[in-house]
């Protein structure tokens, strides 16, 4: 597992629960609770020899790449650094893998957002520096013939320990604190729960799939509508959620339609029964997790 953040840690923990041996490799020691107790190997994917050494030491059957900075706004301001991490890192991992299967977690930002939703056959046109770096990483790995690029829509879930908590966690915390939450009403997503990404990753690795596959959630909605659904699950005041425009804030470099659907998934038997969770069920789970955290703090 290359990458130890919220998503990488959750995938690694899911693989461990299945009985697989997962080693987390990253520049920093994992902070995500999901990665707690997992073996950790320090690795900077920008260093080709370090990548080769990690593969030699652990001799993995396959690699899962969740590497590089995922802060899209930061990548837009630092395109060369984003390219070095995502694209350069993919090149080094491809060389180190030496024919082993690699599953790359990629993004909806490889599309420009001009369509309401994009399937695997849609032509790519990156919306920003992050999308461009990820698309180049995809092509580098796919050229090996042993890789799968799993493009995921906006990943979310309860992430209390993250350095940069995801949108759902941020919404829940802000609303629970009784603070105003300003979110775009013109930025559309198909949010996918982190547990669904982990389940699909494990199933696709076991099946040895290659090529490109999309994973988006069943709901297509604006961030504003999504925040209102979270407020309802929390029993928070809906008036705290205020609409904003994508172009006026940090979402300006995101595509208008950051939405994915799959033209392949229904034909893959290993994905049977792994239908992605909707945002209302996810919001209910988020409310429960937030409540447990508050009760634990009060009991100290």
UniProtKB/TrEMBL annotation:
Keywords linked to the UniProt accession: NADP, Oxidoreductase
Domain annotation RmlD-like substrate binding: ranges: 4-266
Protein EC: 1.1.1.133
Pathway: Carbohydrate biosynthesis; dTDP-L-rhamnose biosynthesis
Signal peptide positions on this chain: none
Region Disordered, annotated ranges: 276-300
GO molecular function, one term: dTDP-4-dehydrorhamnose reductase activity
Biological function: Catalyzes the reduction of dTDP-6-deoxy-L-lyxo-4-hexulose to yield dTDP-L-rhamnose.
Similarity remark: Belongs to the dTDP-4-dehydrorhamnose reductase family.
Protein name: dTDP-4-dehydrorhamnose reductase
Native source organism of the sequence: Saccharothrix coeruleofusca
